[in-house]
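Figure S7 source data.
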Amino acid sequence: MPGIFVTRSTMPKFEDYCEILKDIWESRHLTNMGKYHKIFQAKLCELFGVENVELFTNGHMALELSLQALGFPRGAEVITTPFTFASTTHAIVRNNLTPIFCDINAADYTIDVEKIEDLITDKTCAIMPVHVYGNICNVEEIDRLAKKYGLKVIYDAAHTFGERYNGKSTAEFGDVSCFSFHATKVFHTIEGGAACFRDKKLGTKLYQLKNFGISGPENVEGVGANAKMNEFCAAMGVCNLTHLEEDIHRRKIIYERYIENLNGVEGLKLNFPQKNVESNYSYFPAIFNEKVFGASRNEVFAALANEGINARKYFYPLTNSFECFNGQFDPTKTPVALNISKRVLTLPLYPDLALEDVDKICRIVLSCKK
Ligand SMILES: *Cc1c(COP(=O)(O)O)cnc(C)c1O
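Tokens for the predicted pyridoxal-5'-phosphate complex:
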């Protein structure tokens, strides 16, 4: 029997994708902002309720080029968190900017807004918070601080596709909000990403930067990359949007089954959708308190692996302890993030995960309890 993975890509109807493929085949327009790029972009604007969406090859390039487009001076500081995927921190460092790591709060694992102000210096140019597991940052307080100190806000919104907070999509927050459409996410375009932004001038820059910085037939204004979404990926996006609602509904049922099985277990902290948030149920993190539960996160991870079930230590390790940074940053300065990263396990969650499998996963987890 093949194992159970932490996530599994959703697929559109084969026939639906083939129909678009036929159109692409005949048009010979395979990339460079073609018909499906435009259609997909328009559909996202509608879904997000925003005017400006720029598409990219992946979520990482959306983050990296958004920072580049904002044009901060070399060495300027960006306040962010280490409890995230490599991409967030790498986007900062690859722009020759300095990440300043703020701790997270233990309630929802997003940036601790009480600790931001102390980190602001005259070199600070931006805040790059991360919405984690579909939990939305304290956007009001971040907005207030950004206005007070004249900082830009770039959200890593990779985990929040399809979510709403007080009726607003997460694409509406900050100066820029970036999404990932990687195959493993709630919604995907195989690989892909988007940046949603307020300032139309930023859109022109982003459009150029994803196409080598080319600004006209004989003009190259910026040192850009190549990060254009091709027609095949855009087509996958168009197809996958049709079953998004159904997917999220299935995720909710699976999520609730986990809750039913695991809620109230001593030494185990679960994650619940926040107030005023229409959740996308993207991840199911469980935080183990070894002293109370009787087994460590690593022991539970191993017990699941032993049965062919691949949970994920997500996010572990913290980005501020990555080998590539050669000890430049001190993870003990973000103690809450450090503590959670050692105790968290995200359990398998995808729309076609069978409820019997959820029960089996929970039985294995509970069998570790002493
Ligand atoms: C997936 C992810 C990214 C990167 O997106 P890609 O599309 O894989 O490049 C960035 N940040 C977070 C939090 C993610 O989960």
